[in-house]
Structure formats: C-alpha cells, structure tokens
Design a protein that fits this description.
Layout (H helix, E strand, L loop, with lengths): L5 E5 L20 E2 L2 E2 H11 L4 E6 L4 H6 L4 H9 L3 H10 L6 E5 L6 H6 L2 H4 L4 E4 L3 E4 L4 H12 L2 E7 L9 E9 L2 E9 L10 E9 L3 H6 L11 H8 L5 E5 L3 E4 L3 H13 L5 H12 L1
Parallel strand pairs: 1-4, 1-6, 4-5, 8-12
Antiparallel strand pairs: 2-3, 6-11, 7-13, 8-11, 9-10, 10-12
The structure holds 1-O-phosphono-alpha-D-glucopyranose (G1P).
C-alpha cells in the first residue's frame, strides 16, 4: 500500500454565502481568532502526515500563495524589535520550499472538476482531499483518524457524520450497508438528494482519502446535481471497482462557508485558545444571559 503523502485543497470557490467579506479576501483567509481558516486545515493535514499540498486556485486568490511565502520585511522588523515569539510562530507555519503546488481551475465547473485539475501533480499516488470550508475540531485530527483506518483497510475512505434529516439535501449522503466500529460499508452515495429520497442522514464531511483512479473517472464525469461535475458521482462509480469505506470520525465540524457556521467556528476555537480562552469563555457566558 502506498503511503499517503499528498493532499488536494480546492480553494477556487467565490464564498458567496459570506459576501461582502469575501469580495476582495479569499474566504479561506478569513480569520478564526488569529489564524486564517485555511491554516487550521493545513495543520490538520500536516498532523496526519501530509507532505505535499496541491491548492486548486482561481482568480483573486493570490493572497493564499503570498500567505505561504516568506514576508521578509515583516520578519526582519519583528526580529529587530525583539518580538521573537511572534517571529517563531510565523516561521513554524512557513512550509518547506517545494512542498506546495498551485494549479488553476479557470471556471467553476464543480468540486469534481476542481479535483481533476490536480491530476498531473497527483500522478499515480493516493491522495487526501480537504475542503477548506470545513473546519473539524477533534482530539486527534480528523484526517489523522482516517489515515489510521486507511493503514488497516486501504482503498478509499470518506469521513461522514450525522446531520438533522431536514438538512441532508445540502450535502453528499451515503447509503450505509454494514458497520464495523467507525468503518461503514456502503451500497452507494448521492449528492444533494431531496430530503425524502436521502438514503440516510450520514453526510459526507469534506475529508477524503482516494486512489488516483478517481481522476480517470472524473475526466469524463457528466454534470450532476446543480449542473456541476460532482466528486460524489465519480466516487459512486469508483466504489463499484475498489474497496471504499465511510468513516464516522470523532470530532465536530464547522461550515465556515456559511455565516452561522463561521461564527460558531470562531466561538469554538476562541473558547480553547491558549491566549484568550479563559476570557473568551467568560464573554460567551455573558452573552448567553
Ligand atoms: C461539497 C460536496 C458534498 C459534501 C460537502 C461538505 O458540497 O460536494 O458532498 O457533503 O461539500 O461540506 P458543497 O458544500 O461544495 O456544495
């Protein structure tokens, strides 16, 4: 079994649900306390052993590339002023040279198309996908839990969690067949089903470990739900020929692409923040009265 080293992060989306904040700032760069949402996702992937990141970007996303570069003037100034702790924190987040690739998705044709744009960098390797809209707060990183499962069963694994039944049509939903602990065998999956047609209330969370053959399927994948090329449709085909499991991870996800989800993520991460956590908790209690 090939080791999982690469991850694809699709970051070309407009962020229409949080406009006007995202008119000039990529939604992935919105701060959750003091770190961009994207940094949490990169941290999660690193913790799971990912060594190379492939960002699928689009127009107006230049801030993302700059964020992962050195900021010489700023770093020099921090050092001159003796702000060592801040400098060290920035330095620790700077990726090693050559460990990030940026590919372009010129038009918004759907998540499946975005992933296919990374095919040349992925080559013949298994890879993870992390949707940066989704932050997962967990004891052990969500992708880390999946890698553990991957090391025992191999094949393809997608993270799932339960949602209230009236919300299933916002997501990809799986049809579970049998369960072994947190691993679930499936008979199928469907993207954004009507509530009365959903095969379960287990939604696809936004963390995937896939084999490279998905790229061959995506190449000819017809548009599906919402007129977009859907990753879920391609995965439903792949599961007919390869081992494929869903994995009910331990943790809590926050949809930072929506106003309320973003707000909840800020509260959740502020509450446990090493610098402001205690005061943030007191503040949250004050507002709850
Ligand atoms: C995407 C996927 C969907 C998944 C969701 C998780 O949908 O297509 O299967 O459940 O992310 O957030 P989107 O949110 O891009 O519409």
């Amino acid at each position: 079994m090939k080791k999982l080293r690469k991850a694809v992060l699709p970051v070309a989306g407009f962020g229409t649900r949080v406009l006007p904040a995202t008119k000039t700032i990529p939604k992935e760069m919105l701060p959750v306390v003091d770190r961009p949402a994207l940094q949490y996702v990169v941290d999660e992937a690193r913790e799971a052993g990912i060594e190379h990141f492939v960002f699928v970007t689009g127009r107006n996303k230049g801030a993302i590339e700059d964020y992962f570069d050195r900021a010489y003037e700023l770093e020099y100034s921090l050092q001159q002023k003796g702000k060592t702790a801040i400098y060290d924190a920035l330095d620790a987040d700077t990726p090693e040279a050559g460990t990030m690739s940026f590919v372009r998705q010129q038009s918004a044709k759907g998540l499946g198309h975005a992933i296919w744009c990374a095919r040349d960098v992925i080559g013949d390797d298994p890879f993870a996908i992390l949707l940066p809209d989704v932050l997962v707060k967990a004891e052990k990183s969500c992708l880390g839990q999946m890698v553990e499962a991957y090391n025992s069963v191999g094949g393809n694994i997608i993270a799932v969690d339960a949602v209230p039944e009236d919300r299933v049509s916002n997501y990809g939903v799986i049809a579970p067949k049998s369960r072994d602990g947190r691993l679930i065998e499936m008979s199928g999956m469907v993207e954004k089903p009507p509530v009365d047609k959903a095969p379960s209330n287990l939604k696809i969370t936004g963390r995937y470990i896939l084999q490279p053959e998905i790229m061959d399927i995506l190449k000819t994948q017809a548009a599906g739900a919402g007129g977009e090329i859907q990753l879920t449709d391609a995965m439903a085909t792949l599961m007919k020929s390869q081992a494929f499991h869903a994995f009910e991870y331990e943790g809590q996800d926050y949809d930072c692409g929506s106003k309320l989800g973003y707000f909840e993520a800020v509260l959740a991460f502020a509450k446990d923040h090493p610098e402001i956590g205690i005061e943030a908790n007191a503040m949250i209690k004050k507002f709850a009265q």
